[in-house]
Design brief:
There is one protein chain. It is built from 5 helices and 6 strands, in the order βββββααβααα. It has 147 residues and is α+β, with helices and mostly antiparallel strands. The protein folds into 2 domains: 11-43; 49-145. Strand 4 (49-51) and strand 5 form a beta hairpin. The structure holds zinc ion (ZN). Residues 3, 5-6, 8, 31, 33-34, 36 line the site of zinc ion.
């Protein structure tokens, strides 16, 4: 939660109460940098779920995706905020189309599609982890598609 006054990323919650009528939590926050106080309404949205290839369902975990993306973008000089935006975009698309549970395959494709636009090297690195390449030829095919 960024401070609306100075943009500082760290704020402190000084009061928190849930709104009975809606699924929202009203929070009073204070900026750790400039001391500006403001109120936020945070919606408790339904959790998104991911259907794995073995048939099990897991919670959509943006942190897990972020860790994978950070690993794929090591030394590529891509700002973490760009990666967060990428995940925000996916989350938005999933919510907008009410796609839950989303298959892990579809989710992987959604990540790859966006990563390809952002950074080709990171895309290949991520693809090699995310997609189950059966053998090296498959991986090389993927590389060749980018040339
Ligand atoms: Zn501030």
């Amino acid at each position: 939660m960024h401070c609306p006054q100075c943009g500082h990323p760290q704020t402190r919650v000084i009061d928190s109460r849930s709104q009975e009528s809606s699924n929202a939590i009203k929070r009073r926050r204070e900026c750790l940098s400039c001391g500006h106080r403001f109120t936020t309404f945070e919606r408790c949205e339904d959790p998104l779920e991911v259907l794995k290839s073995d048939g099990s369902i897991q919670a959509f975990d943006r942190n897990k995706i972020l860790v994978g993306l950070m690993r794929a973008t090591i030394k590529r000089d891509i700002d973490t905020s760009k990666l967060n935006e990428l995940i925000d975009d996916i989350e938005f698309e999933l919510r907008a189309s009410a796609q839950t549970p989303v298959s892990s395959h579809t989710l992987g494709d959604m990540v790859l599609k966006r990563l390809q636009k952002l950074d080709k090297v990171a895309y290949i690195r991520f693809a090699s982890v995310y997609r189950d390449f059966k053998d090296i030829d498959e991986f090389i095919d993927e590389l060749n598609k980018l040339r």
